[in-house]
Amino acid sequence: MPAISEIISKLPGTKTSIFSVMSKMANDHNAINLSQGFPNFETDQKLKDLVTEAMNNGFNQYPPDSGVHELREQIVSKIKLLYGKSYDANTEITVTSGATEALYTAITAFVNKGDEVIVLKPAYDTYEPTIKLSGGIPIQIQLKGENYTVDWDEVRSAISSKTRMIIINTPHNPTGTILSEKDMLQLQEILSDTNVILLSDEVYEHLIFDKEQHQSASKFSELSERAIVCASFGKTFHNTGWKTGYCVAPEKLMKEIRKIHEVTVFSVNHPMQRAYAEYLKNADNYLKLSKFYQTKRDLFLNLIKDSKFTYTASKGTYYQLLNFSGITDENDVNFAERLVKEYGIASIPVSVFNINEKDNSQLRFCFAKTDDTLEMAAEILCKL
Length: 384
Known about the structure:
By secondary structure, the chain is an alpha/beta fold. It folds into two domains: 18-43 and 287-383, Aspartate Aminotransferase, domain 1, CATH 3.90.1150; 58-282, Type I PLP-dependent aspartate aminotransferase-like (Major domain) (Aspartate Aminotransferase, domain 2). It has helices spanning 18-28, 45-56, 69-83, 98-110, 127-133, 152-158, 181-191, 221-224, 233-236, 251-264, 270-279, 284-287, 289-303, 332-343, 371-383; strands at 32-33, 93-96, 116-121, 137-142, 163-169, 197-201, 227-232, 245-248, 319-323, 345-346, 348-349, 362-366. It is globular.
């Protein structure tokens, strides 16, 4: 039997994720890991107890492929409470294996060979590989300035007869910025006479600061009719390893998404869905999160206020960008690597997410950490 002589990669230019690279370096050098986006504190014991209870009550076999009905009903209630939009739990909600699967199924369901998808850069690094796997063409638009604002005229100009989808992310990873109501209304107007699908990545919807309001695509009547909104329980409730998320969309879109979901993972862990369904009944479990994380953001920024880093306070997510141009003229990748090896602290260089790896001398730090961890990290940063 002949050996396989040649492998033709579907993603020939794709490198190992920067998150994996920096986390491995952090482990190798025993560094404080403020790179990958995960909390280093425990999820609520009540939620863990609910998982155990569900297991003990026999919910250990396949759940419905679209998700446990009780959980889908709670998602509907949450969206109605927060954004005033009513979705149908039976036909417009699907529970997914994390938000990444929601994004994957949404792109795969609608993007065909030659279709164009507008991606605002910097962007989460799964968008473009998934577009390419479907034969689509990413159309990159760089967000402007160190505060990463959208040039909506540029977005309008990028839309053509080949445009199938546009992807937005608010609150935004990696920059910690948010889209305003004015931004969303401009987007709504731009898309009004098109057949473009909106994919809205809203995994940090409950992590928004300074009394700002999250502007979900679900809030805007015309946008919601073309929008697929993706969300994450793992990011929300400090348990990223549980890999549970969901997406919501009008029935005509969700019908196609569920086809891909069914042949990709079929269904999602049953006992955890039961636990989330019960946990969501108390709205305080998600409404209190903005205050919780703003306290951590403010602590981190106060601890580094005398450092040589400069910054604009994050408006959402649990990430903070720090500008290091007052410390070194190294590029951000080299500086990030040196911080791990020589100082024992890991971050994410932002240039890897930008068009042509545009370098604004910024690193991303995750502040979803215990106060002790933030204090140790700040002590290092203040010495630079």
